[in-house]
Write a structure and sequence with these properties.
The complex is a heterodimer of chains A (151) and B (194). Chain A is mainly α and 151 residues long. Chain A has helices at 15-25, 33-85, 102-114, 132-147. In chain A, helix 3 packs antiparallel against helix 4 (132-147). Chain B is built from 9 helices and no strands. Chain B is globular and about 55 Å long. Classes of the chains: A mainly alpha (151), B mainly alpha (194).
Chain lengths: 151, 194
């Protein structure tokens, strides 16, 4: 059995033969417009269906993403508010600038003088009253911190 | 002026649609573009129906195969990836649908014959064409004829034919060589080789 694979040059056909083959094979078959319409109508249904599905998916995904972002933002804002409300700042940090210094003593002194020191957290010496003694305690604390820790 | 401008824009868009490659059309169809499908359909409709007619030998069956072929294609969207030439991809579908249609038609004809009390219905006689080349082509085996026509009438290269017919490249070459040899040896077509 001859298993040789024919060479490429043996597989070419002369132009006359190709022309004859094309003529012999080219039957002009008329496709009725009704068939064209039926096929194209099916395509419109298919693509509108898949397009609607796609649009629906995009719509839901957009809404979900937006809702998630809102929830996260709300959670962050709430957390931060609670953090502030719960006084994550040190009690002695009266002006909430993140530092305990003489400015906090001045701020408390101003509140005590004005009679507006009602926050029980400002009772730093624990005697049940927010007064000048708490101002002195904060001032002493601030000085201690400036000196570098315990005296 | 505005209406004319819109009309011109539409015509330009239509021309651009028809200039798009098969890959671009398929990509558009994956995006839900029905116009792209129409362009692809019109581009290959006549080839598909001609191929179907070659397999079925019947124009009515070829029309059925045409519809089934493009409905089969539609079901692949969205998400279809064209990884070969369109003809290579669609050829097996046309062939299988044509064979199925022809088998079904033959069974139907047999059933009708039985119901009519006729012992055997003669097979439909294919009209003999006066064209010598057509006669010679009919005498080739189906496999040889297929390869020959796919190569020189439908323009597929050897690798595409192998892929479309799901046969080794060597088999394609061998069948094509044999088909050309038959034509070369026949005195009615010998002059084509001179």
């Amino acid at each position: 059995m001859n298993n040789d694979v024919p060479q490429e040059e043996d597989l070419n056909a002369p132009p006359r033969l190709i022309e004859a083959l094309v003529q012999a094979s080219s039957e002009c078959i008329f496709v009725p417009p009704a068939i064209d319409r039926a096929i194209l109508k099916a395509s419109e249904r298919q693509f509108s269906h898949s397009g609607r599905g796609r649009a629906r998916r995009v719509w839901w995904w957009t809404r979900l993403t937006t809702a998630s972002a809102l929830v996260v933002a709300f959670a962050l804002v709430t957390f931060q508010w609670q953090r502030v409300a719960k006084g994550r700042f040190a009690r002695e940090d009266v002006n909430h600038d993140g530092q305990i210094d003489i400015l906090d003593a001045f701020a408390l002194a101003r509140q005590v003088k004005q009679g507006s020191a009602s926050d029980k957290r400002l009772d730093v010496n624990g005697d049940g009253v927010v007064d000048e003694r708490d101002v002195a305690t904060i001032a002493a604390h601030a000085v201690k911190l400036e000196r570098g820790g315990r005296s | 002026m505005r209406i004319i401008s819109l009309q011109v824009d539409t015509e330009i868009q239509d021309r651009k649609s028809y200039e798009r490659s098969d890959l671009e059309l398929v990509a558009a169809m994956n995006g839900g573009d029905a116009v792209a499908f129409e362009v692809l359909y019109l581009r290959y409709r006549d080839w598909v129906v001609g191929l179907a007619s070659r397999f079925t030998g019947d124009e009515d069956l070829a029309m059925d195969v045409l519809q089934e072929t493009f409905l089969y294609l539609l079901k692949k969207f969205p998400g279809f990836a064209l990884t070969a030439s369109f003809k290579t991809f669609i050829y097996p579908a046309v062939k299988n649908l044509a064979i199925a249609a022809r088998s079904k038609a033959r069974r139907y004809q047999s059933t009708e014959a039985e119901m009519a009390g006729v012992e055997g219905t003669p097979a439909p006689v294919e009209s003999d064409s006066p064209d010598d080349l057509r006669q010679i082509l009919k005498r080739l085996s189906q496999e040889h004829r297929e390869v020959l026509l796919l190569r020189f009438v439908d323009g597929l290269d050897l690798a595409e034919i192998a892929r479309a017919m799901d046969i080794p490249l060597g088999t394609v070459k061998s069948r094509l060589h044999n088909a050309l040899g038959t034509l070369r040896a026949d005195p009615r077509t010998k002059q084509c080789f001179e």
